[in-house]
Structures are given as structure tokens and as C-alpha cells.
Specification:
8-stranded antiparallel β-sheet, mainly beta
Length: 347
């Protein structure tokens, strides 16, 4: 029997350095890193419960709820990097994905790739579903031509659907705002009956400093999705804008985080009217600085209050977490979802 871990237990931790003192006050002992194999049982979370997705394991490395993608993951987008586990680390600042300019043989290929980076997921361990607010605190976004950091979600067990919480195409002038996109996908093979296989929005943000902390939030109900950046509503989808919403988004999704180098995406962020299209990432050039780092300070989840289908775009209070959180054991990719509730499901 395997247990699917659903974020549920609140942990009051405000920084990595202060973790041991705060955990001791919460009955967690003096260790700043709770056990990574602690059992998590089924529960119904309260309306104000905030949970952290583990970033750091008890021995100081990456928490075992995360696993690395294959070396050539992302090749379908013509990305130029080789994914390497050693390019993903955890520091006092958070989870760090580092892109480097260095030639390496990638996978079974005999032709070297010129860049390395990292791509990780919680496919077998952590997922969320409708009735959840997901908040990603980013301490640093890499900026520069050819850089493409992302935090996104895919369905547990495979199938149709993708939710992009954060995608940022680096600007050639590092003092300019990255080009942001928020997107949803029905499928990748363009076989959906309505032929509306993706919807999204792309934009820049005035006076955005990629070297300072920012929050990227998704409010997900059974019939709507709202994206907020630094507490400002930037995009909305629901069952009236998206005919396939309930087909695709009423099931559990796991997390992915990566920092791509190069890649093509000529229309993936087009608005429903087709009036806006994000330019392709393109290749790095002499102006692109390496190593480049994508730093995630925390990932938190909390239940969306009852009646969340008619959400107020005003912000909800969020307690941010450092890389320390309840542990989790291995999980089944075939976990079931009780819609609107975040449960641990044994299968």
C-alpha cells in the first residue's frame, strides 16, 4: 500500500535559520528538518489552514518529495539545456535551480549540449486539486535573453490538462521586465473537440525587479481559476470562458519547476482572441549572464474558503514558509480526488 501525500498540516516556520526554535514551540523538537518519511493520514483541513510543500530534506538536500526529470526533458520545445540533478540545490534562500553554460553529453546522445540546468517534479508525492490556493514565493527570477523559468502543474497519472502558474521569458535588457505568461492547456495534440487546446495571457510588469521577492498565486475552485502576481489579479478563467474546464481541471495536479535555456513557443500564450502572442524564447547571446538562478523561497497551499466559486480578487492572507515542512512518503500516481477537499488517499 502506498500513500499519496496531500499538503495539509500547518507548520509555523518563518525562515530557515529560525526553523528549529519555531518548530520546538510547535512540538516539533529542535530539528529544523522534520522527518521526510512521516506518515500523513487522511484529514479535512480547516478554512484557514496553510501548509508548506517541502523544499529541503532533513539532511539538508532537496526534499525527497521532489524528483528530477530525464536529462532531455523539454526537448520537444527545442530547449538547449541538459537536465542535471546537481543543478538543483537548497540554500538559506530557498530551492535553487541553476543554469550554466557548459558543454556536456546528455543522456544517450553523442552530441554535447552547451548548457545545463534542472527540472524537478512532485509526480509521485505531492498534488493539489480544486478548492486550493497555491502561493509560490520567488526570491529571484533569472532575467536575460534565452532564459525561461517556470512553475507549472500537470495531472496526476497523466492525461489532458496543464496549468502554468508562472512562466517568464527573459528580457535582453536585464533591467527590463521579463515577459510573463499564464496559460491553461487542454491537450498537446490539438485533438480537443472545440480546438481550443490552450488559453492564456502574456504581459510585462512596470518596475518589476526580478532580483527581489515576488509572489505568484493561483486560486483554484471547481469552476474557476484566478492568477495573481504580488496580490494583483492578472487573469481569470471559468466554465463560461472555457468549455472544457470541468473536464480538465477537476482532478489532482502535481507540481513542476524548471529553468529552461532557449526554446520555441510561438503561440502557446495566445489570448483567446489570438491578439497577443509571446515571442519565442530564442537562444542566449553574449548579453546573457551565466550561471543564472531561479530561486523559489516557498510553496504554500491553503483551502479556498467555501463559496470560492464567486471569489473576490482581493488578496487572501498567506503565511510564507521556508524550506522546511511536514514530510511525506512515496505516493501512488493513481490517487483519487474528492473534489473540493484536500485529502491524503491510500491506494
Amino acid at each position: 500500500m502506498k500513500r499519496f501525500w496531500w499538503p495539509q498540516t500547518p507548520v509555523v516556520v518563518v525562515s530557515l535559520g529560525a526553523a528549529s526554535a519555531v518548530l520546538a514551540a510547535c512540538g516539533g523538537g529542535g530539528s529544523p528538518h522534520p522527518s521526510d518519511s512521516s506518515p500523513v493520514g487522511p484529514s479535512t483541513p480547516s478554512n484557514n489552514e496553510v501548509s508548506s510543500v517541502p523544499l529541503q530534506g532533513k539532511t539538508g538536500g532537496l526534499a525527497p518529495v521532489w524528483k528530477s526529470d530525464s536529462p532531455n526533458f523539454g526537448s520537444g520545445n527545442n530547449q538547449l539545456e541538459c537536465q542535471q540533478p546537481q543543478n538543483v540545490t537548497v540554500t538559506d534562500e530557498g530551492l535553487v535551480i541553476t543554469a550554466k553554460k557548459e558543454p556536456v553529453l546528455c543522456g544517450t546522445s553523442s552530441t554535447p549540449k552547451q548548457y545545463t540546468s534542472g527540472s524537478i517534479n512532485t509526480m509521485d508525492s505531492v498534488a493539489v486539486g480544486p478548492g486550493t490556493i497555491i502561493t509560490v514565493k520567488v526570491n529571484k527570477l533569472p532575467n536575460g535573453k534565452g532564459l525561461w523559468p517556470a512553475f507549472w502543474m500537470r495531472p496526476v497519472g497523466g492525461g489532458n490538462g496543464e496549468i502554468g502558474i508562472l512562466e517568464a521569458v527573459g528580457a535582453k535588457n536585464v533591467n527590463d521586465s521579463p515577459h510573463f505568461a499564464v496559460t491553461i492547456h487542454h491537450d498537446y495534440d490539438k485533438k480537443s473537440p472545440s480546438h481550443q487546446e490552450k488559453q492564456g495571457k502574456n504581459f510585462t510588469i512596470n518596475d518589476f525587479d526580478p532580483n527581489k521577492p515576488h509572489t505568484f498565486q493561483l486560486k483554484w475552485s471547481e469552476s474557476s481559476l484566478d492568477w495573481l502576481i504580488d496580490n494583483n489579479l492578472v487573469f481569470h478563467r471559468d466554465t463560461t470562458t472555457t468549455s472544457w474546464f470541468k473536464e480538465v481541471f477537476n482532478k489532482p495536479y502535481f507540481f513542476r519547476a524548471n529553468l529552461a535555456v532557449g526554446g520555441t513557443m510561438p503561440d502557446w500564450a495566445a489570448t483567446p482572441s489570438g491578439s497577443q502572442v509571446t515571442p519565442g524564447v530564442g537562444s542566449p547571446d553574449a548579453s546573457t549572464s551565466f550561471p543564472a538562478q531561479f530561486i523559489i523561497g516557498s510553496i504554500t497551499t491553503q483551502p479556498l474558503k467555501q463559496g470560492g466559486d464567486s471569489m473576490n480578487p482581493a488578496t487572501s492572507p498567506v503565511i510564507y514558509r521556508s524550506p522546511s515542512a511536514p514530510g511525506s512518503g512515496p505516493a501512488s500516481r493513481q490517487a483519487a480526488l474528492s473534489v473540493g477537499r484536500r485529502n491524503a488517499v491510500a491506494v
